[in-house]
Amino acid sequence: MNDKYFYFAIAALFGVSTSLFSFLSFFLFTIIYLFLLYRYKKFTNSQLVFVICIFITFFLTGQHAVTNNKTKLSDSISTFYLQYTENTKVDGDLLQVTALDRKNKEKLLIRYKIKSEEEKEELKDTNFYGRLCQVTGQLTDPSIAKNPNAFNYSKYLASKQVYKIVEIENHPLKKCSVVKSTPLTKIKELRFKGIHYLEKSFPPEIAALSAALIFGDRSMFNPDILMDYQRTGIVHLLAISGLHVSLLIGMVFYLGIRIGLTRQFMMDFLLVILPIYAILTGTSPSVIRAVLMLFLVLFILRWKKQLKLSPVDAISLTLMIYVFFTPLIILDAGFQLSFSVSFAIILSSSSILPRYPLIISAMVVTSIIAQLAALPILLYHFFEISFISVAANLLYIPLFSFVFLPGLYLLFFIQLVFDNTPSILINLFMKIITLANGLIDQLADISFAQLVTGRPNWLNFIIYLLIIHIIFLLWEAGLQQKRQQKVILLAIVLFTFQNVWNWVNPFGEVTMIDVGQGDSILIHYPFGHGTYLIDTGGTIRFEEEEWKKSEKPFEVGRDVVVPFLKGKGITKLDKLILTHGDSDHIGGTFSILKEIEVKQIIMPSVAEPSKTELEIIQEANKKGIQVVKVAEGSRWKNKKGQFYILSPEKNYQGERNSGSIAIMANIGGLKWFFGGDLDQEGEERIIKKHPNLNIDVLKAGHHGSKTSSSEIFVNNIKPSISLISVGERNRYGHPHSEVLEQLSNTTIFRTDIHGAITYRFYHESGTFSSILHKIKQ
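Request: output the structure for the sequence above.
Response:
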């Protein structure tokens, strides 16, 4: 069966995917796959039967995981007996830690609001392991994705067998007893102590990089620096990967031989140490893959010398073992990237890489192979890639492999042995890290190097896979002139076809984005006829002590609106319409201006702009963006419709909400009214001037407050659909019961209940839906 394990691994993935995703689709893929193995790979009947058995085994494994992937706890439970199983995470005044409820045998995420700065410092330094603690708290559900393509925290936790969050009021270690530590717990304790030792012994920059490369912990990294690594496509260097594991294990093996230990002893030693090392470094998918592969290779060398295990067989077996015990891991982006890139490099090592003997050319080719293999996965999870990543990898892979990795291990051991590290070494590494971070910041800001395509649908994802597969086949066959032309053509298609599809897609949409207690509405016409964003949402900040502030506070523009736009492949707005100066409507503007190209900003013509509005105008002037002040009577049009400004009057001097921009537009065969936070006084002014105004879709003013959407206004315009943008369990009690009563004759969509609400249209007809429910009109 040698050299067949690769095909068995594919069958295993099909089996799990059939249980986790679409049964019919993946079952048909499996039938086609079996035919291809029989027709082109000349599999015998017995081998095909074996492949079918693997498929069935992994299908049942996936079914078992799906069946048991849910909580068994009742929401009425309030007392828990916890054994903490992971390192604590303290961010601002919030502590989070995963724990096992010993009574109910279920993992829980524990959240505790820290009471004081002194308590925060104490908790950061406290080892939670080796205790059984009784706590009381309220069970809550993790947040779900309420916008298209948004990160689904609930599914993320569920993939780690965590289904509930416990919000506790009292100190998490208040009622505890000591329990005997297991070997696993002792290793995790050692990891905790090692990370904190680094934090106390070195400057923050060295400690953060050391913790990432030695213990696989990135919690100390500055979020902005981490984002720079992600944007330039080299964040994988901060994860312990096969390269790191191989270098370290190779170094240990060499040192053991040099001091006189036998090869057999060293192999036995490494077989014992590898699982311990995996736990010490955080058991990320890349670590598990690398450790398990090395373990299999060493095991075969040690006890099955007559059996030959090729690299592709080793990684295929590794994948099958990993997925068999944790089927849901195939949903993890780290797992997908680690195995796809590793498979591509291993499969290319015998056919493509030998043609590039020079070190530089080999590194360039390896980086290109890795980027091609990772491309569909990166676009699916992150919606964009960086063309600068190949150059960045060329610069940073040698830096990490030959400077940072050995150097930081050396600093760590010097500090451990002598309890002091020479300042000359500290200063040297500080300078190197500062230069490296400064350069990565510059590279990350090269906007033209970023390709944003949006999340590919399944058809586009399959097209990506087919094109990349053909490129590899042509490359493997040899790049003569004709094949070079084909590869260049395919590469152009690869990096453009989804953007072309985004442009020629004949469907348009209006989406009320769920931004919590705020407003943000996307209007997108097909064929480049217009892309407009009405308001950006915003996070209302309250003054708080410095120690309470999160390292990277949630910001609606950056964390919700920008990913939503990029997920749809939108990188340019023709108009950014800011209805009025309240932060919950325009606070996210700065993030939009940083990440998205904006041609024109539209603001209300008011006598006294808010502070935020003035700051936005200043930022727009820096970027050369046109700012237009509009009042009643203003209008614009595109090839598909017109937009009329009904309010405010020019140089408006009244209350800010009453001065909101109110827009009437014909979109997709329906008449729409967008009024920001327009109050009843503003509504009355519009009715007086436009008594025959008829509207199909009303965006209810001020999040359903009783100060807007008056009975007179609603009865006059006679909408059939009402949209309410409102935060879940908001402090204001929006939407008000009176407003809901006044809108009771309409179909009401609310972002707190339905999530993002989309009207998808083709020419003059369309369908309303939401991310949580779908209703046809």
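The chain has five domains: 5-68, 79-180, 188-455, 460-504, 508-542+549-775.
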